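Progress against Task 2.4 (sequence-to-structure conversion) is shown through the following example record, which the project officer requested during the mid-term review.
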Amino acid sequence: TLKDSSGTGIVTGGKCTDSEGGAGIAIDEDSLCTIESGVIAGNTSVSYGGGIKVSGTLTISGGSISSNIAYDYGGAIYCDKDGKININDVDILSNTSGHDGAGIYIILNNNDSSINDCLILNNKSAGKGGNENTSYGGGLYIGAKDEAYILTLNDTTISGNSSADRGGAVYISEGTLKMTDCAVEENTSEDGGGIY
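Structure tokens generated for the chain above:
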């Protein structure tokens, strides 16, 4: 558990130069990480997860994840098929990915992930990824191992995000997104400026 009681804690300046990802924080399979407040900002990965890469379980309450860069997927957060995330009252701001999911990139393998009371603002999928030159999901990219798996999104605003190709706010490749009391506004993309 990482707890920022004073409100001054920051994880910054991390560099990931291999294909494993996770420049700020990397959470391995079967590991549990709980973060309470603080800032994760200014980290850079040449592959996945500029801010955080999740292969285990991540729970965040409060704080912000901002201005991180992933050359491929998940500028702020990359969650692979072995991971799950529960994000509460977090600001995800101005992160960049070269490929998909500048804010959050997630592959669902269960129904246990949720995003609640968050701001996902001004993230950009630039379309210059190392693997393919496409750009989907400026705010949020969702894939799944099975179409039946659900990501729950509550009381969250997704605004000002952009992608070069599809889904300025949200791109759903596979799986289901269940949204309650959310706002999706002023996002831009060539196809599906809001949700694709």
